[in-house]
Structures are given as C-alpha cells and as structure tokens.
Design brief:
It is a single chain. It is built from eleven helices and seven strands. The protein is α+β, with helices and mostly antiparallel strands and about 260 residues long. The chain folds into two domains: about 220 residues, SMI1/KNR4-like; about 30 residues. The strands form two sheets. It has a four-stranded antiparallel β-sheet. A hairpin with a 5-residue loop joins strand 4 and strand 5. Helix 5 runs antiparallel to helix 6 and helix 9 packs antiparallel against helix 10.
Length: about 260
C-alpha cells in the first residue's frame, strides 16, 4: 500500500458513488491530505503524551495526514441495492492526525466520579482506558487503537450503546486495507466487513455491486437476492389493503355475529 495506490482506489470508489448520488446538489467528495512531517508527528505525540503506534504513524508519514470522504445515495439508487446493503447508503467520514485523540478516558473518569452509585460505572472506565481514537462518529462511537493490547496496535470499535470494545483488526494497516477495499463505507459498519472471515464475502459482493459493469451489477444483485431468499418489498397498494383489512375485518365479524344472533332468536 502506497500513496498512489490509495489515491487511485479512492478515486475509483468516489466515481462509483457519484453515479449513485442524488440530483439535489449534494456533493460526493473526498480529499487526501499530504503526508505528515516528522515535526508534525512529534508535536502530536507530545500533545497526546503517548507514542503513535507504528502502523498508524507510518500511514500518516508515508501516505496521508488525513482523509475526508463523503457520499450519499439517491433514494431510488438505494432501493436498487439488496436489502442487506441499504444501510451503506451514506458516509461522512474524517480521520487523520488532527482528530487523533486519547482524552475520552479522562472525560469518562470524570463522568464516573460524578455518578459513583450508578451500576454502569463498574467496567465503564476500563473500556476507554488506553484507547487512541482516530475516527469519531456523530453518535458517540469511535474507532481506536488499543494501546494496552498485546501488540499495542489492535484496532477496536467502541460502541456508545453497550460500551464494549470489539477488536476489528490486528493493526491499522490491516484495518485500512480492508476498509479501502470496502469503499470506505460508513465507519459504523466497517467492522462487519473486516470480521466477515478470510473470504470477506461482503466486501466481494459490495465491490461487484459498486465497481462492476451494469451486467455484473445486475447479476450479483439477482444472485444475492436468490441466495438469501430476499423478499420483495410490499407495495404501497398492498400495504393499504392490509391496513384496510385491519380496520374492516373486526366490523365484519361483529356484523356476522349480529346476523347470527338475529337468525336464531
């Protein structure tokens, strides 16, 4: 992996996402910053008070100090996707040296200190301890490097929902290579692609859907729907009939009961 190959792959994916973009002026775009200098890296380490893990440091120094990647699907294009892939219809992601942060632990410890009797405080702090976050999601989730892992390089996903750190890659290099192959999908879901086994079937399917020809795209969508027995979406008319039935059937039953009672009086 080098800067040239990363840029080419990003451009390939952005072109694919642009073909699925809405026509209302929303812009799908990306930017690849220049690599960081040794002075910038040392300054950040001094600010953080920790050494940046080698795999991440090498990325910043040799490939880019940061990436911004944004895309949104047109609603019609989204509905063309197999149901299991529709959650990948947008991403607004920024990561890099500037957003590198290890302050969550101290913030969490302040929260625990102010809520000493809450049951959730028992293991809450340990989840965030020694984590160097490099991607922050708007809902409070983060992707970070676990500095306390055996290698000091393990990449984990920390969910705000259950406050659990789940390993998704042994180091940043493997994390980013897998993420790039999957088109820098929304970071909330990247773990699904990285933990899909050695075959990375989801990544293969997603690449064929987005990067294949129209014929390949149609074929893989058709085969995938057949394999997972995906049910077609109910139409608005069908849903209207169901709703009408829910309202009408009880009245019909009451009417028939009334007729039955009158008949045998």
């Amino acid at each position: 992996m080098n800067r040239k190959s990363v840029k080419e792959e990003l451009e390939k994916w952005m072109k694919a996402y642009e073909n699925s973009a809405p026509e209302d002026g929303l812009i799908n775009s990306f930017s690849l910053s220049e690599p960081a200098t040794e002075e910038e890296l040392s300054s950040k380490e001094k600010e953080l008070g920790v050494k940046i893990p080698k795999s991440l440091r090498d990325f910043f120094k040799n490939i880019s100090a940061g990436i911004v990647f944004e895309f949104t699907f047109d609603d019609y294009k989204r509905k063309e996707l197999p149901h299991d892939f529709r959650y990948l219809d947008n991403s607004n992601m920024e990561f890099g040296l500037e957003v590198l942060d290890n302050s969550q632990y101290s913030q969490i410890m302040d929260t625990i200190k102010n809520n000493p009797d809450e049951p959730w405080t028992d293991d809450f702090g340990q989840v965030w301890k020694d984590k160097l976050a490099f991607v922050h999601l708007g809902n409070g989730d983060v992707i970070a490097i676990d500095l306390a892992s055996e290698s000091g390089e393990s990449v984990v996903f920390i969910s705000h929902y259950d406050d659990k750190a789940t390993e998704i890659a042994p180091n940043f290099t493997m994390f980013f290579e897998g993420w790039l192959k999957a088109g820098l999908v929304n970071p909330s879901y990247v773990g699904i692609f990285l933990t899909d086994g050695e075959s990375n079937e989801k990544t293969k399917i997603w690449r064929k859907i987005m990067l294949g020809s129209e014929t390949e795209r149609a074929e893989i969508i058709r085969e995938y729907k057949k394999t997972v027995h995906e049910k077609p979406e109910r139409t608005v008319i069908f849903q209207a009939f169901v709703a009408l039935g829910v309202i009408v059937v009880p009245f019909l039953i009451l009417f028939l009961i009334g007729m039955f009672v009158k008949l045998f009086k």
